[in-house]
Design a protein that fits this description.
The structure is a homodimer of 318-residue chains.
Chain A (H helix, E strand, L loop, with lengths): L6 E8 L4 E7 L4 E7 L11 H15 L5 E4 L14 E2 L4 H6 L2 E4 L5 E4 L3 E3 L7 E3 L2 H11 L6 E6 L4 E7 L2 E8 L1 H11 L13 H12 L8 H4 L2 H7 L8 H25 L5 E4 L3 H12 L4 E4 L4 H12 L5
Parallel strand pairs in A: 1-4, 4-7, 5-8, 10-13, 13-14
Antiparallel strand pairs in A: 1-2, 2-3, 6-7, 8-9, 10-11, 11-12
Chain lengths: 318, 318
């Protein structure tokens, strides 16, 4: 006999380019999951209610009292409704307090999770929307042997976040993924990338070039040009240019991120928790390992677990 | 009575996106000049002879014995014919020795100037094509009070070159201009740049952010994101995002370039000679001045003067 837990929450991870929906039981188990190319950029004319109906209409019809919670860019100025940022330090309680409820059709309420803003002394502010929920979800699922944890979420705009006492205390964004995509699609370097392939040796070479020489080596704007010159002199295989560039950019992110963390903590971190899909987790895993930093990859659906924890803290689970 | 010098050289500055032609007298004066959108990317199917005929056919018909010399990407693999790079250190003599002659129509010869390659110890190689001719042309026109000169040529791929004893001894490229164009046209930052305007205050703020905190501030991939967050919190006017990004990138180029030069020379340079059109010269002038480095802008047609000097050294002027 299979025991089916009753659904407790409709959890939505609603980002810029994708929408993921989870029907969750109170113990965090996923009863059903769905995904659609319905990120906020793909939803035209603010038709978010239709997108929600498409992905989860039958669930909502079947469970009229089911609470619904969404995190991510859906709560941005370009999303359904703008939710003011919670200020770091922020944990589950601060996010639960900042929920914004809107009517999402047929008298039903959808609650949006706030993003988090971080204002360091004498530095520009930084922001995240969606990653805070993933981080706190992964934290809820993790062993909490350490008082302080470093999370890294690679992507279009990678996030590095320090968590202390179960709250996000500081973080920084890196435009690594967006820059890689831009350079590949539109730059003179992209024109060299006629052959697509993963080339681990070229990736490692890019990582190494990122760490070469410190500031006196000329910086990233200079080093990017080496993807061109090395290919020009056949010192890099043509099929390896994309991997080299990827290594150079990810290596530069680590160079900057680790220096930032070291300045804050007074020491380079010994371990890091990655929240990433498999391909990026492998690349970042290689990059951290090359610096002797231990890597753990968060398992499970961090966003869903975070949404459940926030819903519980907000008293939505009944 | 006007004395018209007889033409001594057809000089072509033939780059990626533009073609400039000069009819030169032996004393370096420009008898006539023309420009066309006939860079090597705009010339289809290798029809370089037609492009040459279009821009200078009447000059060549009128002066059958006129020697013709071209510098720039026309001598690259994507150009008319690939000319092997001269290795740095390289001056007028080395370039003259490396000329490659090709038949350009009706039995007439066109000579192509080699680019220059620089191989630093334990760093990727670097290359230039066209800038070497501009640098040596500007040098020929300049007072030579100093034994060692730093030239900076801002652009799509900015070049920083050290000249000693009238030869280019080392140089480095920076992808500043290309990255600015990419980010403006295709990135999430570009979407913020709905209002176009030059905003000197935002430019200076970008310059300042580039120098903030050294490596411990997180590096360029992180700082780029500040163009977004500052605009998001109305700490930067919407009309200033492009200028801020320009300041941040040019400031990062200076940060990297000056560190590179300082490591090579053991000291930050006191002065720099810019070879640039007016708008870029003004921006880079501001950026160097903010660091207390004196700026001189090369006057005259550096490319034409360089081509004349190379032609003379090659014995082409008769």
């Amino acid at each position: 006999m299979t025991v089916v837990s009753p659904p407790s929450l409709l959890a939505l991870d609603w980002g810029t380019t994708s929408l993921r929906a989870f029907l969750l039981a109170a113990d965090g188990s996923v009863i059903e999951r769905r995904a659609a190319q319905r990120g906020i950029l793909q939803v035209k004319e603010g038709r978010f209610a239709s997108a929600l109906e498409e992905i989860a209409g039958d669930w909502l019809a079947r469970h009229p009292a089911l609470p619904a919670l969404a995190s991510g860019m859906i709560g941005s100025r370009q999303g359904w409704r703008e939710v003011p940022y919670a200020e770091a330090p922020a944990g589950i309680l601060e996010l639960a307090r900042g929920l914004l409820a809107l009517e999402c059709g047929q008298g039903r309420m959808l609650r949006l999770v706030p993003g988090v803003a971080f204002r360091a002394k004498s530095a520009p502010p930084d922001v995240m929307r969606g990653e805070e929920t993933q981080i706190l979800g992964a934290l809820a699922a993790a062993d909490r042997g350490e008082d302080r944890l470093l999370f890294v979420l690679p992507g279009t705009h990678s996030k590095w976040a320090l968590v202390e006492g179960e709250r996000i205390v500081s973080f920084a964004s890196f435009m690594t993924g967006e820059l890689f995509a831009l350079l590949k699609a539109h730059s003179i370097l992209g024109r060299l990338m006629t052959k697509e392939s993963d080339d681990p040796a070229s990736f490692r070479r890019g990582l190494k070039e990122a760490t070469r020489g410190g500031a006196a080596a000329g910086g990233l704007l200079h080093k990017l040009f080496s993807a061109r010159t090395l290919a020009l002199f056949d010192e890099l295989p043509q099929a390896g240019v994309a991997s080299y560039l990827s290594g150079l950019l990810i290596g530069s992110e680590l160079e900057g991120g680790l220096a930032l963390i070291a300045a804050e903590l007074g020491a380079v971190p010994k371990r890091v928790t990655l929240i990433a899909e498999a391909a990026l987790a492998a690349l970042y895993g290689t990059a951290f390992a090359a610096r002797g930093i231990a890597v753990e990859v968060a398992s499970g659906d961090a966003a869903a677990l975070g949404l459940l924890a926030i819903a519980r803290a907000a008293g939505l689970l009944g």
